Amino acid sequence: MVYLQITLKVTNANRAVAAGVYEKYKAPFLNTIAGAKSKELLVRNEDVQVLHGFDSEANANAYLQSELFTADVVGGLKPLLDAVPDVRIYQVA
Length: 93
Prior knowledge:
The protein has about 90 residues and is an alpha+beta fold. About 40% of the residues lie in helices and about 30% in strands. The chain has a 4-stranded antiparallel β-sheet with strand order 2-3-1-4. The N and C termini lie close together (about 10 Å). The model has no long low-confidence stretch (mean pLDDT about 95).
């Protein structure tokens, strides 16, 4: 399993809208993105993380180049962000 972790700096005032973007694109992510296995929203006081599960690193990287991510997800989140997202890919040992 491979995880794509995206950490977002979003103010408390914008978190509900950001969560709405997550909910809107969760099903399309799971149903249309090659190798997609899971998608979870993790909320902390200091940030919000979206943890995506994939079957391979290649599919995780391909998602980052997909229209769903670049146009839809990034387009919906961009006005809500206080900083550039931190994007990391992890391989399960």
